[in-house]
Amino acid sequence: MNKINYEENLNQRADLFKALGHPARLLILNLTRMQPRHGEELAAILGLTPATVSHHLSKLADAGLLTSKKEQYYQMYAPVDSVLDKTLDEMVRLPQPGLTENVVEDAYRKKVLKTFIKNGRLVQIPAQYKKRMVIIEYLVQEFEPGRQYPEREVNHILLDFNEDVATLRREMIDHKLMKREKGIYERIV
Question: Where are the alpha helices (DSSP H) in 35-150?
Answer without folding.
Answer: 39-46, 50-62, 81-84, 88-92, 107-116, 129-140
